[in-house]
Amino acid sequence: MTVPANEKVPAGRFYFEAEGERGVANSFYFPDGAEEVRFGANASRDVAELCEKFGYQRPFVFSSRTLNRTTDVVDRIADSLGTKLVGRSDRVGEHAPVSNVIAAISEVREANADVLVCIGGGSVMDFGKFVQLGATEGVHTREDLRALTIDRAPKLNQRPELRQITIPTTFSLSEWTPAGTPVDDVTGKKITFRIPDGVGRAIVYDPEVVRHTPVRLALVTAIRGLDHSINTLCSAAPNELCTVLALQAITQFHTAIPLLAQGQLDIALPLLQRASWLGGVCQMSVPHGFSHFMVHVLAPWAHIGHSETACVMMLAQARWLREHDDPRLADAAAAMGRPGEPIDVILYDLLHEIGLPTTLREIGVDPSQIDGVLPLALAHPYVTLHNLRPITTADDILAVLASVAE
What we know:
alpha/beta, six-stranded parallel sheet, two-stranded antiparallel sheet, 46% helix
């Protein structure tokens, strides 16, 4: 481990030597605040153990409504916390509406909670981050929260006093990022936050919990995780460690996704959770490309799900890279068990095999109206910034999207 002279190592951040040549990342950043990952876990046992280990005395549980009201998963975790439990809520909502976040901040504050236990998919993982932020920064109103968006408050006052323990039930890797985008239910638009130490202090991967996730939701979020891993591998500024981990993640995602579709959960779910770790831990160390960020633009513009959009954007990016000469594309094909083939063909076959969308038309986007999203894409800070094959103009974006029109 190499640390620059006279520089203190921030908690949870590691430096690795690199050559420093142009286009190669010099550092690997372990997500700030993440301390422990448990695989093959028993969530009701492990969450109680982690609270004891970290010294938490007043946990507050947040979960998805469906998981809470149609299974006993949340009951078992809550019961394991015994008299320590100070609150429980499933008022998260799809894309974590700001009004729900404000209400939850108030609930957590009144309960004097000292840790959040978040059980669910990406919306729940992100919801915990927003509650952490609001409880730390003294948020009481929508206006207070909006004042902390990444464009208005790039530097926050302090790291969160409140942390979370996360139990993910999907595979889009949101448990590994400090950022999130709730919906402002006044404007109907997403806003972006970056929360210091927003990731879980501990991440608990329990395959039994994920058995309750609807198969289609599990599949589309696993495709989102695969897309993130391909972006890590094919980054415009790669990192050697991330490259190795991303290749492993790609192999495991590509192996497990068809097994999940076939109902072979005993094999698929542990593989997908390990792929989520391998792919997720890399996300803060290398810049991602078009497909990652175009999802954030296209999905809210068209009022469609992020993961469904990711299926099509992943394929669009791969087709754009078809003629690009980079050995990592061949490495990706080999990692998916089909060396020498174009990765767009491999990805199309995967999506087609499991019945997920491959065109804009299939996700409800009329190709004749796609011009309307171009100003938003060009205004986004990252859509045109870090692409292996440059995407810099409106014509470039149209060409990428045309490849998956219908």
